[in-house]
Design a protein that fits this description.
The structure holds 2 protein chains of 2 kinds. By secondary structure, chain A is mostly beta strands. Chain A has no helices and 11 strands. Chain B is mostly beta strands. Classes of the chains: A mainly beta, B mainly beta. At the A-B interface, strand 4, strand 5, strand 9 and strand 10 of A face strand 4, strand 5, strand 9 and strand 10 of B.
Chain lengths: 114, 114
């Protein structure tokens, strides 16, 4: 059974801090790993990672995948109150009857205080 | 761009009632899926479709039916609502299910079963 585990489950920081969110996975026929940010409504797409060691960046956010050790991290530098959200990690199984299936972790609740 | 549109946004049902959650996308995506989100459990896949006329079960399919008569629409039917189906339901779509493109989510339907 595919499994994705995120840590920590919750994190409270102050504006300006840097945070690192962790995601480990066990997925057969692994194809890619995705990070989403969820505020009050739909999860919104942040990053898709398919290759090990290649960092993806978008402003203050960055992410990297390690396919040997089966984990990914999401870094947020100089955090702002607007970064407060649930961050979801999901792994894609692209094989056989599980084609395209996303397995999600429990999410990390990030709270940024002013 | 409308993206993924879900209706209704909120619904309250009595145990035993049936209803259909609507999902439509205007991006000509082949792959569509339904998830439910419960506290502490992340998002879990209910059913998915790789194209018109093709559907398959996900992780938690019991009590739900789907059909895909057109590329655009992927309705989710609750046959006989039970309190355990109280949840937030998300529909998502992507160009394919290969894992090379991210899935994009609708704003969700919050469903309460009394």
């Amino acid at each position: 059974e595919d499994k994705v585990v995120q840590s920590p489950l919750s994190l409270v920081v102050h504006e300006g801090d840097t945070v690192t969110l962790n995601c480990s996975y066990e997925v057969t026929n692994f194809r890619s790993l995705l990070w989403y940010k969820q505020e009050k409504k739909a999860p919104t797409f942040l990053f898709m990672l398919t290759s090990s060691g290649i960092e993806k960046k978008s402003g203050r956010l960055s992410s990297i995948l390690d396919k040997k050790e089966l984990f990914s991290i999401l870094n947020i530098t100089a955090t702002q109150t607007g970064d407060s959200a649930v961050y979801l990690c999901a792994a894609v199984n692209a094989g056989g009857t599980s084609y395209g299936k996303l397995t999600f972790g429990q999410g990390t609740i990030l709270t940024v205080h002013p | 761009n409308a993206g993924v549109t879900q209706t209704p946004k909120f619904q309250v049902l009595k145990t035993g009632q049936s209803m259909t959650l609507q999902c439509a996308q205007d991006m000509n995506h082949e792959y569509m899926s339904w998830y439910r989100q419960d506290p502490g459990m992340g998002l879990r896949l209910i059913h998915y479709s790789v194209g018109a006329g093709i559907t398959d079960q996900g992780e938690v399919p019991n009590g739900y039916n789907v059909s895909r008569s057109t590329t655009e629409d992927f309705p989710l039917r609750l046959l006989s609502a039970a309190p355990s189906q109280t949840s937030v339901y998300f529909c998502a779509s992507s160009r394919t299910g290969s894992g090379d493109q991210p899935q994009h989510f609708g704003d969700g339907t919050r469903l309460s079963i009394l």
